[in-house]
Amino acid sequence: MIRDLIFAAIGSAAVAVIMHAPRKAIAYCGICGGLCYVLCNLLTDATTLFLAHVCAAFLLMLSSRALAYLLKTPSLTFLVSAIFPLVPGAGIYYCAYYLMQQDIPAFSARVMQVLTIALALAIGIVAGSAFPLAKKEVK
User: Fold this and answer.
1) What is the CA radius of gyration of the chain?
2) For residue 6, what are the domain limits?
3) What three-state secondary structure class fits 1?
């Protein structure tokens, strides 16, 4: 699990570097991505794949909004780079592979899994963005 956390954090930080994120935000992007990935893996063992990804995306959205407020950086900086480990890239690859091999049952199963994860990520992000943040007092 520690290895997964480290690799997910490095991957998220690398995406932040590629996106030209501010230097002060790169480490936070990595930490956020690593923690959300580990949370998703822990919840996958205890619950369904759908619920695990919804919870991880919800936490990711809340943490990216909080980090955006603290570091005065757009929340998309944290969201896009930290969601990278949660996106089912291998599933999309295998969808195309099974389609080219004309293995329709395996293709159908993989497509359903990828669409389930994509829908779960979207629901978690929307739910996290609808969650109200504390407002500053105007003097």
Assistant:
1) 16
2) 2-130
3) coil
3-state DSSP: the chain helix, strand, coil percent, rounded to 5?
80, 0, 20
Per-residue pLDDT tens over the stretch 35-69? 999 999 999 888 999 999 999 999 999 999 999 88
Question: Do residues 26 and 96 make contact, with C-beta atoms less than 8 angstroms apart?
Answer: no
Report helix angle 75-82 to 49-71, nearest 10.
150
Contact 32, 71 (CB under 8 A): no
Residue 49 covered by a domain: yes
CA distance 125 to 99: 30
pLDDT digits (tens, 9 = 90+) for 82-131: 999 999 889 999 999 999 999 999 999 999 999 999 999 999 999 998 88
Query: Of 135, 137, 139, 128, whose CA–CA distance to 65 is shortest?
Result: 128
Residue 6 lies in a domain: yes
120 within some domain? yes
74-80 mean pLDDT: 90
Quote the number of domains for the chain: 1
**pTM, to two decimals:** 0.86
